[in-house]
Specification:
mainly alpha
Length: 361
C-alpha cells in the first residue's frame, strides 16, 4: 500500500505542528487569511446547491447530502496549497505540544493568529465577493441564507452546538490526518472528501465555515441574529467544541497511541527521499536544493539515488539522503519540505539534548 503507517503519519503531524510554530507571524497570518476565501468557496457552493425549495420541503436530508458533496472542494484547496486552517492547526499544534516539540505559548500564538486570519479572510470573501457581488441577491437564495443561519444559530441550544462542533472537527482533522498518510494527489483528495462531506451532511458545526454562513445571513438582514448573538451562540461553543474534537479525539488520541511508550522513538521513513510526504506545512522560507551526486559507477549512482552512497560514502544520520528521510511517491529525491520536516527544530523535543549541537532544544 502506497501510504504512510499510522505511526509515521502521527510523527508527520507532530513535525508539521513544530514547523508551523517556527513560521514568521506575518506569513502565518496571511496564509491563514487566504484560507478564508478557499473555504468560503465551498460554503457558497453548498448554499447555492441547497437552494431548492421543493427538496427542502419534501426531502431535506437528500438535498443536504447533495449540497455536502460539493463542500469539500474548499478543504481540498486548503490542504493542497498548504494554507493554515485554524481547526486543522488544532490537531497539528496539540500533537506537537504533547510530543514536547512546541511550548504552550507557541501553540496559543498559532491558534490565535490562524483564527483571526481565517476570520478576516472569510469576512472579506463574504462581503466583497458574494455579498456586494450579489451572488445570493435572488429571493430564493436569500431565503436559503436566512433559513440556513437559523438552523445553525437559533434552533439548537448552546450545548447542542458545542457537541456538534466536537463531531465536526473530529471529522475534519481526521480527513487532514489521513490525507497526510497519502503520498499522491488523487489519494489526498479522496481521503479529504468523504469525512468532510459526512460532517456537512450531518449538519455539524465548524467554526470557520460558520464565519461564512452566519455573517452572510447578517449581511442580508436576518431579523433575529446580530453580531453579539452570533459570537455568544455560535462562535464560542463552536470554537470550544472544535478544539475538543480536533485536539483530543484526533491529535491527543493518536499521539497517545503512536508516539508514547515502547516503539515510539526513532520512527523511520525507510522508503527513499521526501518529495510529497506532506505539503500542508505552509510557507517556511527558501529551501536549499540538493545537487545529484556524480557517482563513479552505475551501481554507485543507483545507490546514491536510494540515499545510501554519495561519492562512495554512506551519509551520516541526519543527512537529507539518509534512509530516515521521509519518502515521496514514486521518486527518490529529497524536497525542500522534506528538509524542513526533517530539520533539527522539527524532530527534537523540548529539553532533550541535540545530537548535533550537544545543547538542549
Amino acid at each position: 500500500m502506497d501510504a504512510f503507517t499510522p505511526q509515521q503519519t502521527t510523527e508527520l503531524v507532530s513535525r508539521i505542528g513544530c514547523k508551523k510554530a517556527h513560521m514568521r507571524w506575518d506569513k502565518l497570518f496571511w496564509n491563514s487569511f487566504m484560507t478564508g476565501p478557499l473555504l468560503g468557496f465551498g460554503c457558497a457552493v453548498t448554499l447555492s446547491t441547497e437552494t431548492a425549495p421543493w427538496y427542502q420541503e419534501n426531502a431535506p436530508g437528500l438535498i443536504r447530502t447533495i449540497g455536502a458533496t460539493f463542500f469539500p472542494v474548499g478543504l481540498v484547496m486548503i490542504v493542497l496549497s498548504g494554507s493554515d486552517l485554524f481547526t486543522s492547526n488544532v490537531m497539528f499544534m496539540s500533537t506537537a505540544f504533547l510530543h514536547r516539540r512546541v511550548t504552550f505559548i507557541e501553540l496559543m500564538i498559532n491558534w490565535v493568529t490562524s483564527f483571526l486570519g481565517n476570520l478576516a479572510g472569510m469576512l472579506f470573501f463574504m462581503a466583497i465577493v458574494t455579498g456586494y457581488g450579489g451572488v445570493f441577491d435572488m429571493a430564493a437564495y436569500r431565503m436559503e441564507v436566512i433559513n440556513f443561519a437559523t438552523m445553525k444559530c437559533l434552533t439548537p441550544t448552546w450545548v447542542q452546538i458545542f457537541l456538534r462542533a466536537i463531531g465536526a472537527n473530529w471529522l475534519v482533522c481526521f480527513a487532514v490526518y489521513i490525507s497526510i498518510s497519502s503520498r499522491e494527489i488523487v489519494s489526498k483528495i479522496v481521503a479529504i472528501w468523504f469525512p468532510t462531506m459526512t460532517f456537512v451532511a450531518l449538519g455539524l458545526d465548524h467554526v470557520i465555515a460558520n464565519m461564512y454562513f452566519i455573517p452572510t445571513a447578517i449581511f442580508y438582514g436576518h431579523p433575529d441574529i446580530g453580531v453579539g448573538l452570533y459570537i455568544w451562540k455560535s462562535m464560542i461553543p463552536t470554537t470550544l467544541g472544535n478544539i475538543v474534537g480536533g485536539g483530543l479525539f484526533v491529535g491527543g488520541i493518536y499521539w497517545y497511541l503512536y508516539l508514547t511508550g515502547p516503539g515510539s522513538d526513532g520512527i523511520t521513513f525507510e522508503l527513499g527521499g521526501l518529495d510529497t510526504a506532506m505539503e500542508a506545512g505552509g510557507p517556511m522560507g527558501p529551501s536549499v536544493r540538493r545537487s545529484v551526486p556524480k557517482s563513479q559507477s552505475s551501481q554507485d549512482e543507483k545507490s546514491a539515488m536510494d540515499g545510501k552512497i554519495i561519492d562512495g560514502k554512506e551519509p551520516e544520520k541526519g543527512h537529507p539522503n539518509h534512509v530516515s528521510s521521509l519518502p515521496s511517491s514514486g521518486q527518490k529525491m529529497t524536497s525542500g519540505i522534506g528538509r524542513e520536516l526533517s530539520a533539527e527544530h522539527c524532530t527534537h523535543r523540548k529539553g532533550e539534548p541535540s545530537p548535533i549541537e550537544g545543547q538542549n532544544v
